[in-house]
């Protein structure tokens, strides 16, 4: 699974898929659904980032089954986070909010900063599903603070996309474009192509690299 993640971050999605599929097969061979959770999640992520919703949904269904039977709600934070993401892509705000709250509840009492950044990205993106919602100053302050503190780490695409989109929603196009330029030109660690949700945010500020 570690090799698969490296392949995913360095822009080799097909190699990532093969590595995660092999890790998942090995977990199933030894009858360990707990070990199958991570590669299944990653397979859903890889397909989602590529815009292959059919495969992403298939692996997400498996992930949801694992979450319903593992009796470990605290360990399910990343699963609920992913289910929230899938609901966002489906435009289902009610389901997204439900999984968002479960994701929040399952975080450790003192969560890692990168985990809180991820949840901030989920929350902003979920709230933006309401076309009439406008980010309040405190929403943007938190998002920008988390962005500044975590954007140099891998896995920052969701928060970057959410923050750009939130600034656009408030018609602050100059700040949104500046953030997009800084993230894509200086901060983004991934060598892979931007996932579909980040491409959408970048297109809103006419950023083409």
Describe this structure in words.
Helix 6 runs antiparallel to helix 7 (113-127). This protein is globular. The chain starts with a helix and ends in a 5-residue tail after the last helix. It is built from eleven helices and no strands. The chain has helices at 2-9, 13-29, 33-49, 53-69, 77-89, 93-105, 113-127, 137-150, 157-169, 173-187, 196-204. Helices cover 72% and strands 0% of the residues. The model has no long low-confidence stretch (mean pLDDT 89). The chain has 209 residues and is mostly helical.
Topology overview:
Blueprint (H helix, E strand, L loop, with lengths): L1 H8 L3 H17 L3 H17 L3 H17 L7 H13 L3 H13 L7 H15 L9 H14 L6 H13 L3 H15 L8 H9 L5
Helix pairs in contact: 1-2, 2-3, 3-4, 4-5, 5-6, 5-7, 6-7, 7-8, 7-9, 8-9, 9-10, 9-11
| Total helical segments | 11
Query: In what range is the share of β-strand residues?
Result: under 5%
How many beta-strand runs?
Answer: 0
Largest sheet, in brief, is: none
Shape: globular
Mean of residue pLDDT?
89
**How many angstroms separate the termini?**
31 Å
> Which consecutive residue ranges, at least 5 long each, have pLDDT under 50?
none
**Share of residues in helices:** over 70%
Element-by-element helix/strand order: HHHHHHHHHHH
Calculate Rg over CA atoms.
Answer: 17 Å
The oligomeric status of these chains comes to single chain
Structural class: mainly alpha
Task: Write a brief caption for the model.
The chain has 209 residues and is mainly alpha-helical. It has helices at 2-9, 13-29, 33-49, 53-69, 77-89, 93-105, 113-127, 137-150, 157-169, 173-187, 196-204.
